[in-house]
Design brief:
alpha+beta, 3 strands, 91 residues
Length: 91
Amino acid sequence: MTFNLLGGADDVTARGDEVMVYDVRRASRSRTRDAIRRRLLDMNAQFDAIHEMSHNMEEEFSNTRLVSLFVLYLVNALLLQKEVIQQSKKC
């Protein structure tokens, strides 16, 4: 035999002399905790993916900066060489 009390908040089952009370709210809280735990795990996975992308972007930016500096130094060296050649032709 099952009775609903307080608008479905508690289920009471009577078996002989024994009465067991099941708190539906407790089960609901457990489901809510599990849902929050799953959501936090999902957010953690997303954070890890964003962190990895950020790390890769930093490496790419660093490599791009190094290439840019190399090109700048190369251009300066070529301009200096051109200037030295022109100075030597004038002499």
